[in-house]
């Protein structure tokens, strides 16, 4: 859902609760004033019940409302900047009651080399610490941050000038949603609490003694529950996990001849099958690089389609038992890689299929016209679903094109 739509829904929904709370407060205040004039209960007894309830409501909820006002998101011009390698990420995992279920809430703090303190990443940023640490590695990372809600919050995380992990605009929108939600929620709770405080003297001073005792017992029970909930929140300790930065070197592998590929952090060598080296970046799936040479007689660009057709037929005859055409065509045509991997301009063809050994496979054929050949990036899995294999190729395989290096020289 677009942030502006979420903001509109939040304002309309909680704005309605705020109006209801204001109406509740006004009605209860009027009823209290009327009861105050008509009752025989001494004023000091009324105040003994009213003033503590009002004071607690203002002290606890009023202060919370004031603190919430400090969560206003910062503007870009107000951000500070720091550049340093990442040392570690600390995760706080706690459990909170949400409706009828228990919700797991995770908070993250980024620690930098050479600096004390940390930068906070709010829990609605959908922060993936493993992906972040693999992306950051040992290099210097630039953080744009500001103090928001009592914490130093990271608004934008980037490497260099154009490689952004966390975007300011998106972060600012998420913080705006959180701020409005908290502000309008706390305002509604405060209004209802104040209205309830004005109801308390009349509620407890009924003429029926039995009813009065029942109401006081019910109030004591509710108070006890609130104290227990607050105490549980204070006493319960979150699970704290420190994960150091990924400083493993990038892999640079020779595919063949003058062609090499640099694998980002997160990849590691896995197993060797004959002359084929397999790599792994995720459990349950392996990837390898194969060289496919064109041995036909067409010249110029005429050989592109012939080569693709020959390679497709070869796979269907010897290896692929069932193409998965519901995901996409099986090596039917070339497209430019620029749409999927900015900064690259290769002709690529993609295909999916189940092999004769019942493994799910993804093929990405990268054409190299200057070499009369293509590199085939093959990923194979016996346990992932097709959907998870698609997600794997988007996250790990396609970005490999950015690490291709084609050197000078001719093939032997």
Question: What form results from the Cα inertia axes?
Answer: elongated
How much is the radius of gyration in Å? 32 Å
Helix content: 25-40%
Which percent range describes the beta-strand content? Answer: 25-35%
SS elements, strand count: 18
- Look at the structure and give the mean pLDDT: 84
The DSSP helix count reads 7
Low-confidence stretches: none
- H/E element string? HHEEEHEEEHHEEEEEEHEEEEEHE
What does the largest sheet look like? 8 strands, antiparallel
- Overall SS class: alpha+beta
Distance between the termini: 55 Å
Structure description:
This protein has seven helices and 18 strands. The protein is of the alpha+beta class. The strands form three sheets. Strands 10, 11, 12, 13, 14, 15, 16 and 17 form an eight-stranded antiparallel sheet that branches. Helix 1 packs parallel to helix 4 and helix 2 packs antiparallel against helix 4.
């Amino acid at each position: 859902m677009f942030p502006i739509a979420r903001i509109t829904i939040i304002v309309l929904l909680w704005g309605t609760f705020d109006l209801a709370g204001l109406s509740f407060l006004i009605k209860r205040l009027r009823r209290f004033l009327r009861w105050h004039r008509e009752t025989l209960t001494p004023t000091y007894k009324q105040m003994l019940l009213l003033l503590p309830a009002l004071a607690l409501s203002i002290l606890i909820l009023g202060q919370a409302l004031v603190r919430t006002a400090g969560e206003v998101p910062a503007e870009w011009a107000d951000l500070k900047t720091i550049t340093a390698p990442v040392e570690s990420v600390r995760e706080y995992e706690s459990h909170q009651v949400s409706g009828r279920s228990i919700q797991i809430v995770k908070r993250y703090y980024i620690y930098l080399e050479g600096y004390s303190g940390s930068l906070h990443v709010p829990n609605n940023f959908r922060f993936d610490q493993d992906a972040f640490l693999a992306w950051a590695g040992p290099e210097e990372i630039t953080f744009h941050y500001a103090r928001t809600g009592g914490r130093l919050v990271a608004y934008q995380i980037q490497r260099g000038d154009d490689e952004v992990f966390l975007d300011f605009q998106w972060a600012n929108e998420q913080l705006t949603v959180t701020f409005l939600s908290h502000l309008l929620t706390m305002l509604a709770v405060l209004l209802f609490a104040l209205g309830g405080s004005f109801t308390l003297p009349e509620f407890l001073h009924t003429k029926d003694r039995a009813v009065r005792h029942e109401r006081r017992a019910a109030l004591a029970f509710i108070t006890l529950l609130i104290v227990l909930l607050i105490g549980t929140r204070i006493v319960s300790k979150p699970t704290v996990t420190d994960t150091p930065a990924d400083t493993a070197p990038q892999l640079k592998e020779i595919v063949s001849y003058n062609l090499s590929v640099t694998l980002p952090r997160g990849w590691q060598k896995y197993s060797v099958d004959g002359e084929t080296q397999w790599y792994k970046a995720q459990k349950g799936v392996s990837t390898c690089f194969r060289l496919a040479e064109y041995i036909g007689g067409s010249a110029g660009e005429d050989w592109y389609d012939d080569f693709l057709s020959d390679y497709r037929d070869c796979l269907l005859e010897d290896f692929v038992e069932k193409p998965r055409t519901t995901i996409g065509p099986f090596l039917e045509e070339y497209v430019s890689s620029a749409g999927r991997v900015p900064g690259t301009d290769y002709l690529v063809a993609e295909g999916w299929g189940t092999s004769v050994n019942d493994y799910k496979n993804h093929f990405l054929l990268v054409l190299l016209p200057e070499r009369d050949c293509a590199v085939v990036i093959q990923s194979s899995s016996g346990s992932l679903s097709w959907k998870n294999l698609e997600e794997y190729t988007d996250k790990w395989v396609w970005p490999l094109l950015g690490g291709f290096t084609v050197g000078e020289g001719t093939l032997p």
